[in-house]
Amino acid sequence: MRILFTADGSDPMLMDTLSGLHALHADLEKFLKSHEPFADFPAAMDRNPAPYQEFLRGLRLIRGAGEPRLTLGPDRWLVLTGATEKLEECAKQFLAEEENGHTHLYTAPMSLIIESDSTWRPDVAA
Fold first, then answer.
1. Where do the structural domains in the chain lie, given as residue ranges?
2. Could you give the dihedral angle defined by the CA atoms of residues 6, 107, 47 and 101, in that order, rounded to the nearest 10 degrees?
């Protein structure tokens, strides 16, 4: 998984292969069934992020209350907070149906583009 970001008001993009997104979904579900208050899902930062400005360090889920909120933490992690049942709804967005397709996780104050891309394999350097 890689998370690309540009500080121009556009949505960040989380990219992985189809199988990588499905594995992330399974990890999110495991966390949501646990009693842990938060979980970190680190992202790879080993390539040139162009045309984006930077890679973010990962996705952090934090149990809270209310509607889901996606923010950028000062430590350069995307932070998704919300009630457990709302986070479960968000996690479904990572069940991409086709390789090289995308979907959106609509939250406030920012949203996330989730891209399935067969060319962004974590074990192959560009």
1. 2-116
2. -120
Tell me which residue has tokens 């990588």.
20
Residue whose token pair is 């992020």: 49
* Mean pLDDT on 89-114: 90
| Integer Cα distance of 95 and 36 in angstroms | 23
CATH code assigned to 2-116:
3.30.1360
Q: In this structure, are residues 26 and 35 in contact, taking their beta carbons and an 8 Å threshold?
A: no
Q: Quote the CA–CA distance of 32 and 71 in Å, as a whole number.
A: 19
Coil, strand or helix at 86? helix
- Which among 34, 109, 115 has a CA at the least distance from the CA of 79? 109
- Say what the pTM is: 0.90
- CA dihedral for 76, 104, 109, 39, sign (positive or negative): negative
